[in-house]
Design goal:
CATH architecture of the largest domain: 3-Layer(bba) Sandwich
Strand content: 25-35%
Radius of gyration: 20 Å
CATH class of the largest domain: Alpha Beta
Helix content: 25-40%
CATH superfamily of the largest domain: FAD/NAD(P)-binding domain
Number of domains: 2
Shape: globular
Order of helices and strands: EHEEEHEEHEEEEEHHEEEHEHHEEEH
Amino acid sequence: MTAADPVIVIGGGIAGISCARVLAEAGVDVQVLDRGRRLGGRMAVKNIDARAVDTGASYFTVSDERFQAVVDDWAARGLARPWTDTFDVFEDGARAEPKQGSLRWGAPGGLRGLVEDLADGLAVERHTVTSVSRGSGGLLVDDRPAQAVVLAMPDPQADRLLSPDLSAEVAQLADPFEPVLALSAGWASRQWDEAFDGAFVNGDDQLAWIADDGRRRGDDASVLVAHSTPALAAEHLESPESATQPMLRRLMSLMGIAEQPEWTDQHRWSFARPTGARDVDHHLSDAGIGLCGDAWSDRPRVEAAYLSGAALASALVGQLQR
């Protein structure tokens, strides 16, 4: 490792890209490696039936002025849009009182586009990393030397990459995450309440959340996205398609839909969300290994992932300048 080596950020979700952005703006040579065809991580969008559908994160909220400045810029350029502050609630299969909360935001082009916008101008390479280790000359990402390495990903995925000689860093990865299946379904016309935006589904064996993708994206497409419970996802992880019909039947029952959809799509998230919380927003070891993401927060969410990556970058700049 030398000062001429880049900082390598592994993971092209919003945490990794916000980290890389802050590093680049501080004059640090930074390289982003991501295994996906496109950036976004769990802010994922899939093109289905000639339309983009948000199949990962459902929305984002804003409470911190640093993230607010970013969101204001997105909104001014038409990349993000206010969605709603109120969702319906299903309690044990029956409608309950709607729940009002923070303003939720969506993106007309899909949430992934916001991550891609943040990445504009960064050095990004599609590459599947297999190991992060400490070589004789310093840190290595596969066979690439690095001044420092950022792992912006769920704990179980980071754990797979870190070599045994980085045991202190491995010890920080204590959040197992839980799985979710995301079922998307499209109809020729809207088959449900015109005022419906989304619903929390409580006390159900199969579904935990339903979003109206047309309402959140602003094009009013007749598309619903339903997220499974972690238990159902765990049962069908090896063959997620086997959960499509049970999830669809439950979705149609809850929403009062009689007509079958024109299409369905099932997406598996093996590491959808962290199960715990942390009181620190990142980890940076003396060896130059950084860990960030939505698990590094007291309440995992898109905003927390962005702030985690930015905080790690600031700490890393300070470490590199010593």
